[in-house]
């Protein structure tokens, strides 16, 4: 037996690189057992994963949890956002899932934005200007490139929907993850029939949107899992919304997540609608909003540079004037899907450690710029009035601490880079798996009737060392901004992605001035 104070719940994080499962005591938040199993992501131009492998990874992660998982009374799944899972009439994947960081859908995305009224119209309609990451762009890519797969598709799911459905046998999603599809209207909180018609997508293929606090279903007969039949299953949500739950996040408290993706976000009571496309206007998993900016190149890009240099990821050295824009996978913030990595300012005396530091700086730069926009959309003490806005009013040292999470948050070089380029106090929660904890808090909320964010606050999940602010390194921030602004032609769409803006189109997020030039993001 687990000797827990309360019932046990299971929280799952099925993110890009792996699935993690935690068995958590719902009374105290104590992690009783944990497990993790990796995913395979295709390389080359495509970024695809087999949904069946997510299920195998979940099974393995739960097996590692041992006896405790057998006692679970409720479960919830958080998952990487946006991925397009296509299922046939038997519920089996038609093909591998197209992941959020697959930029092949950039031309389709650009066309969609223009065809339905341009960036401002989209921001007002769905809360976001779709990026190639959004599911609607992936569906458009599939229709163009694989009509046979489209013809065989009987259901469309997001990654967390897919796993939840394998648990319950019912097709469900939630407002948080639905808001990243591009076919969920933020103002009405319902699927947008106009977008669906334009995308050639039958609404009958989509899952039911479960309300916050509602039960999505119960676990069916699944001999491969430790759960007995009838265990409650919560709605689950996208991984960023799950981490917001897991931190018990309140408006005005910004989060920086360093994983495969870099994300920066805050909870907001106001519905965001950023026509520049920098800030996605996601819904959170409770009933509020989650303005968020996301980069494609974060921990993996920095680790790749370290590997190329033959250095440990912590072997950074200060100084040096080199700038490295680590856009190894193309980039989303700024919206440069065809970009590749760019190095500028190399000298004879530049050391490998300085180049590695330049990769960290280049990866953190856009996220920290976007932080100001995210908080402009938010409300509370960390918002525009008390901010770390570069060049803006207010001393960042007095702003709300930046909560640093994700795999990279454990790294000293990441922590120091974020402190130096933000000038803010930085808090690093001791709890490692905030996405899985958020899912666990959602599952616990089903049992107790509590708000999942209140559950997480009761558990004290955000507790961790508070790192004092250091003076912001304005020189580096300005140097990166200048290189980004000047590098426009080199960072534009690559030959494999083709199409530029449609003739006669208005500004699109990919065609506007670079962030460094505007000082906006
Ligand atoms: N101690 C560490 N220092 C720096 N980076 C780390 C450390 N531990 C893990 N990472 C990075 O964390 C990443 C995985 O983070 P995670 O948030 O689990 O990713 P995802 O949710 O995208 O699957 C890896 O790419 C790895 O580079
Ligand atoms: O696309 C986004 C957010 O819009 C990404 O944040 C994905 O949700 C993947 O997250 P990780 O696997 O990097 O945690």
UniProtKB/TrEMBL annotation:
Substrate binds at residues 81-82. It catalyses: D-xylulose + ATP = D-xylulose 5-phosphate + ADP + H(+). Residues 381-400, 489-521 are annotated as: Disordered. The record marks 13 as: Important for activity. InterPro entries: ATPase_NBD (IPR043129), Carb_kinase_FGGY (IPR000577), Carb_kinase_FGGY_CS (IPR018483), FGGY_C (IPR018485), FGGY_Carb_Kinase (IPR050406), FGGY_N (IPR018484), Xylulokinase (IPR006000). Residues 311-444 form the Carbohydrate kinase FGGY C-terminal domain. It comes from the Bacteria. GO terms for molecular function: D-xylulokinase activity. It holds the Pfam family FGGY_C. Transmembrane segments: none annotated. NCBIfam families: XylB. Belongs to the FGGY kinase family. Catalyzes the phosphorylation of D-xylulose to D-xylulose 5-phosphate. This is Xylulose kinase. It comes from Streptomyces monticola. The gene is xylB.
């Amino acid at each position: 037996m687990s000797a827990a104070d309360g019932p046990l719940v299971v929280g799952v994080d099925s993110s890009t690189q792996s699935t993690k499962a935690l068995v958590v005591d719902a009374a105290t938040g104590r992690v009783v057992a944990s497990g993790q199993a990796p995913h395979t992501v295709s390389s080359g131009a495509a970024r695809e994963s087999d949904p069946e492998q997510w299920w195998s990874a979940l099974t393995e992660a739960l097996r590692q949890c041992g006896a405790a998982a057998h006692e679970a009374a409720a479960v919830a799944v958080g998952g990487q956002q946006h991925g397009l899972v296509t299922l046939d009439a038997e519920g089996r994947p038609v093909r591998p899932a197209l992941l959020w960081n697959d930029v092949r859908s950039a031309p389709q995305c650009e066309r969609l934005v223009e065809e339905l009224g341009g960036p401002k119209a989209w921001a007002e309609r769905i809360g976001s200007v779709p990026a190639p990451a959004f599911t609607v762009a992936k569906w458009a890519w599939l229709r163009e490139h694989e009509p046979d797969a489209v013809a065989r598709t009987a259901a469309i799911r997001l990654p967390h929907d897919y796993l939840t459905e394998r648990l319950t046998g019912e097709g469900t999603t939630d407002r948080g993850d639905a808001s990243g599809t591009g076919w969920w209207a933020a103002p009405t909180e319902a699927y947008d029939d106009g977008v669906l018609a334009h995308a050639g997508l039958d609404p009958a293929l989509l899952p039911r949107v479960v309300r916050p606090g509602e039960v999505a279903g119960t676990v069916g007969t699944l001999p491969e899992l430790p759960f007995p039949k009838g265990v409650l299953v919560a709605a689950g949500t996208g991984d960023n919304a799950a981490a917001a739950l897991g931190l018990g996040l309140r408006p005005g408290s910004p989060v920086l997540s360093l994983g495969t993706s870099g994300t920066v976000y805050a909870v907001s009571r106001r519905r965001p609608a950023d026509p520049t496309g920098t800030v996605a206007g996601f819904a959170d998993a409770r009933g509020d909003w989650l303005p968020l900016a996301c980069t494609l190149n974060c921990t993996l890009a920095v680790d790749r540079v370290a590997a190329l240099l033959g250095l440990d990821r912590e072997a950074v050295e200060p100084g040096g004037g080199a700038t490295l824009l680590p856009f190894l996978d193309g980039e989303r913030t700024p919206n440069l899907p065809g970009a590749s990595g760019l190095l500028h300012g190399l000298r004879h005396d530049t050391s490998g450690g300085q180049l590695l530091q330049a990769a960290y700086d280049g990866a953190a730069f856009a996220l920290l710029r976007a932080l100001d926009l995210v908080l402009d959309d938010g409300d509370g003490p960390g918002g525009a009035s008390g901010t770390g806005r570069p060049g803006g009013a207010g001393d960042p040292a007095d702003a709300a601490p930046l909560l640093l999470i994700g795999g990279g948050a454990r790294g000293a070089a990441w922590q120091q880079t974020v402190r130096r380029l933000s000038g803010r106090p930085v808090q690093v929660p001791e709890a490692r798996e905030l996405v899985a904890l958020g899912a666990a808090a959602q599952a616990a909320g089903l049992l107790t009737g509590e708000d999942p964010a209140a559950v997480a606050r009761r558990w004290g999940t955000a507790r961790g060392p508070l790192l004092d602010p250091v003076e912001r390194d304005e020189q580096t921030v300005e140097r990166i901004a200048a290189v980004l602004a000047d590098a426009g032609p080199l960072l534009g769409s690559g030959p494999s992605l083709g199409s530029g803006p449609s003739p006669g189109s208005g500004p699109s997020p990919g065609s506007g001035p670079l962030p460094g030039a505007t000082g906006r993001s």
